[in-house]
Amino acid sequence: HHAVAWRTLHLRPADILELKHDGATLTLDWRDSETTRHATLRLQRACYSDVSGKTRRGQAAVALLVARLGQQLPSPAAPARASQPFQYQWQFSRHDSDSDDIGCMLILLALPALAVSGLLAVSLNTVLHRTGIPGSMLITTTVLLLALCSIMLGLNHLWLRHDSRPAPTLRLERDGVHYQNDRDTLHIPWVTIVAVETEQHVQEDGNWRCAVHLYWQPHAKAAALRHRRINTSRPTEPQGDSRDITRHIAQLVRAHSPNFGKARDLPVSSR
User: How far is Cα 198 from Cα 200, in angstroms, rounded to an integer?
Assistant: First the structure.
């Protein structure tokens, strides 16, 4: 039950088609007669108390609600054929524009810092010279060198922090497809995958731009498919032709997805 002002929404678990949450925000699709409806509930003030008296609020309460309702949702159909134990893994380099962006940012940070350091050094030398303090040039040079060292150390730290991000990694394992990059982690069980597509076209610089598009149905009553594009343009481990690797990945996904081709007429979720 959820009451919003004058409206009360009553849903049976059997009517829920899809349920997920992002923090304390709950989104769900459900069947109302012959119509599929969608709602987004912001439950930052939600409160739940269990039998032990422990109280959960906000995100923790919503996560518990989703977990309990999820147990009552139907799971995808059982595999039609068993997958052989296997594991494949590929790593891909990040896009060139990422390094270009961080390089431009470092330059933009370095130039003002150098200008300010130079201005401060000149001002310091002038003040020391006017006051008649001996060794003004040596003091100014020392301060300037320390400032330059600090700037270089700071820029080096930013570059190393950028370069230490995990490389995009795609793994095919017995329990499904695993993909990880520096932004998120994705796991798609084999039984939920219904389609895979490849993207291959040549760019102006002569290099090939490749990607694998995965489509999956989160559960048997989901009203829409999920979609994820995985960039396979620049394989680093193992190295090889990106087109061959892209085709190989698609072939493996097709071969080990027992529900491949089913529910393909469902719309693709934009969320």
Answer: 7
Contacting residues for 13 by C-beta, under 8 A, at least 6 apart: 69, 72, 73
Give SS3 for 14: helix
CA distance 34 to 43: 28
Q: What is the pLDDT of residue 159?
A: 57
Q: What is the Cα–Cα distance from 122 to 247, expressed in whole angstroms?
A: 62
Q: In whole angstroms, give the CA distance from residue 71 to residue 61.
A: 16
Q: Residue 209 class from Cβ within 10 Å (0-12 exposed, 13-18 middle, 19+ buried)?
A: middle
- How confident is the model over 197-240, as pLDDT tens digits? 999 988 887 888 899 999 999 988 888 899 999 999 888 877 78
Query: Which helix H or strand E contains 229, and what residues bound it?
Result: strand 226-231
